[in-house]
Amino acid sequence: MTEVQAAELRAVYFAAADRRIARREGAVLLDKLPLNIVWTHLIWRVFPDARFILALRHPVDACLGCFMQHFAVNAAMSSFLSRDGKTPVTLAPGVASAIAFQTQPLAVTIGVPPSTPDPAGGPEMLGTATPDTSITLQFNNLTPPGDPTALYFPCAYLPALPSLAPHIHVTTSLNGAAPTPVAAVITQNLMDTTQWVVAPPGTGADGTGGAWPDGATVTISVDSGAVDVFNQPLSPTAPASFIAASPVAGSTP
Description:
The protein is an alpha+beta fold and 253 residues long. It is 17% helix and 15% strand. The protein folds into 2 domains: 3-55, no CATH class; 105-246, Immunoglobulin-like, CATH 2.60.40. The strands form 2 sheets. The protein has a 5-stranded mixed β-sheet, with no helix packed on it. Strands 1-3-7-6 form a 4-stranded antiparallel β-sheet, with no helix packed on it.
């Protein structure tokens, strides 16, 4: 391409821009169209002083955004319509589950022993567990759907949340005293990355050796700072409690 040809193309471009917007002298013209990336070599020749902004976005997020927009039909956007040009296409296998995974809020189930009704009609009585009990927290939105061995599945290689531990809090209370933080051992289940395990203080790498204070009320909570892989915040979650109690001598295990 000669300099004369480049100048002609610049004139054509600016004439087209002037038909659509009122350009101000000295203002920067921003032309946002991701599909222009295929013309980078040409743009650079016609506008050698232009600056490029390349926004990196997760492919599933980009795909979901396309299905949520009402695009004018062109050579690229026609891919989001069926052959009659009107009916939305049927989602490819795996896309629906990927979109559901991305849009559902982060939620957690704190697996403490269940409470039991008070026969006298008072507040429910907290469940009990032995002082060496570990509690599993099950998160719903950490592991993407799809077969991790199949590259065509959406989200197949999206990593699980790096660390939730700073957002998991544990307190204990004895004999009605005010709850105090306790140094529980919090780890991610390596066999299931949707699960985090809260073990009693002193628990070793083999999962044994720790104990909650005998008779203490143990309360576990996850704060609102926790987010999933798409930075969606944790939905409101109530703390969960149980009582750590050694078996009474002579009782049935």
